[in-house]
Amino acid sequence: MSTAPTYLSARDAAARCGVSERTVRCWIVKGRLPVDRDGREFRIACEALAPFIGHAADNGHAAAAPSDMSAASPQQSAALSADVAAGLLHLVDRLQRENLELAGRVGYYQVEVEQLRTTLKALQAPREEPEPLESPAVQSKGVDQVEPPQRTWWQRLIWGS
User: Fold this and answer.
1) pLDDT tens-digit profile of 64-74?
2) How buried is residue 50: exposed, middle or buried, by Cβ count under 10 Å (0-12/13-18/19+)?
């Protein structure tokens, strides 16, 4: 008599298959794994889980292959390989075209950015040069030829002219 439960929760099924609970839930949502619902919990029959045990590499993206698929004939395997190769070639071709289109867009946007930079530089206000610290009279004459500034009225009143 077996002590294993006839039904498992999603967490227990994930542990038995070697995948995450989320992967088991994806299998359930996609209809790959039949379940019974008990309120909010899933009840998964151990017999329904048998084809999925040991398929951790699938990671929920591909359907788990039942064990009788490994006994395919060489002709079926060659046809499947040719179909897979044709699909991969089509995918590579499509990705190359997308890559070429995106590279063209990048070039276009680089030119656009450069044009906007030159426009921004043209629109920026010209920088004003700082005023010299000395008066223009001092700049035009030598240091020895500078006239002293005139005294204010109160300095002349106190000290005399």
Assistant:
1) 444 444 445 66
2) middle
